Amino acid sequence: MSRKGLKGSSTIGGNDVLTIDQLRHQDDWVLDTERYRCHVCTRNFTRFRRKHHCRKCGEVVCGNCTLKKEAELPVIGRSLVRVCMSCILSHANGQANPQAPPAAPTTGTTTASSPPPREEHWEAQNFHSPTGNSEGDLSHFTRDFQQPEFDYPLDFSWDHPWPKPPIVPGESERLEILRGFDIMDTPTEDVFDIICDLASNALKSPIAAVSLLDEDREWFKASVGLAQNEVPRSVSFCAHAIMSKEPMVVMDTLLDKRFAKNPLVTGAAKIRFYAGAPICTPSGHLLGTVFVFDTQPRNSCDIATLEKLSNVAMKNLEDRKNAVAAPLDNGAAVEVVESDEQQTEAPKRPAEPLRGSGIGI
After folding, report:
1. Domain containing 255: what range?
2. How many C-beta atoms lie closer than 10 Å to residue 341's C-beta?
3. How many domains does the chain have?
4. What is the rounded CA–CA span in Å between residue 42 and residue 60?
5. What is the DSSP letter of 295?
6. Which residues, in sequence order, are bridge partners of residue 19?
7. Which residues pair with 102 in a beta bridge?
8. CA separation for the pair 95, 90 (Å, rounded)
9. pLDDT tens digit string along 118-133?
C-alpha cells in the first residue's frame, strides 16, 4: 500500500501566507559571526556560498537551504521572505492531521540479506504507479533541460535490453560510509516522510522517494506513491543519478538510451519522467537521492527544490547518526572511568613481558 501525502500540510510553493507574528525580529537573529557553516546542510560558508537568515527561526543558512515564502508585513504589505528548509519541515510536521490513522509502513520489511527478485519478473509483480497522472499546472516550472548528457560508458553485455547499472568510482568506500549510518531497513521516520510529501507536492509528481543504494538494491527510506520499499539496483534510475553530484533530470525516458527499455518504462509502471538530486555527504560520497517519477513526459523542471530537500535529507541522516552514537560514547566513557578506578585499587605487581603480537586474544 502506498503512503498518502500529508493532508493539510504546508507545501513548498503553497498558498499559505506567513504573518508577522510567525517571523523572528531582526534583533533576535543569530549573528553572522557566530556561524561559519549553514545550520541546515552544515556546509562551510565561502565566497560563493553566502550567509542568509531564516526569517522564521533567525538561523544563518545558505541560499540552497532556503525557499522564499509569502509574508504579510506591516507597511510593506505582502512580500517574499527567506525560510529555511528545517522550518518548512517543522511547520509541515505540525500541520499534519493528528487524528489520521498511521500510514502503512513502506520500509523495514526486507532485510539486506534477502536476494532481490529476478529482474525480468520483478517489475510487473511489484511496481505499480498511481492510477492518476500528475496533478496541477506545470507552468511554474522554470528551468528547461536538454536530454541529459553523461560521461560514463554504458555496458549492455548481459541478458537484458537496458544497460547494466554503472558502478561508482570508489564504490567500496561509499558502501562502507553508507553502512556507518546504520540506516538501511529501519522503520519510517516523520522527517523523511515529510521530505517525500514536499517533493511530491512541489514538483506535482505522483511518486517521490528518499532512496539509498547498497550493493544490489535501491531501498526507500520513505516514499509516496510506491507499493514496495525497494527495487533491484539493476533497474534503478538512481544508480545512474549517483554517478554525479549534479542532479539528474530525464524529461522523457523513451528518448534516453539508458532507460528507454528499462522495465519501469516499458512495463505497467510506464515511467516517463525522472528527476533526482543526490544525497551527498560532507566527504563527497553519494548515498542515494531524493527523486520524483511521473507517468507523463515534461518540458521543464524546477530542480532547485529537490536539491534543497536532498541537503535536508543528508543533514537529518547525520543528526540521526550522531544521536545514536551519543549514548554509546557516554557508555564507553563510564566504562573507562570504572576500569581506571579498579586498576587504581588493584594491588600492584611486577610488569610481565607482552606475549604474542597483541592482536586478537
Report:
1. 171-325
2. 10
3. 2
4. 10
5. S
6. 72
7. none
8. 9
9. 444 444 344 544 444 4
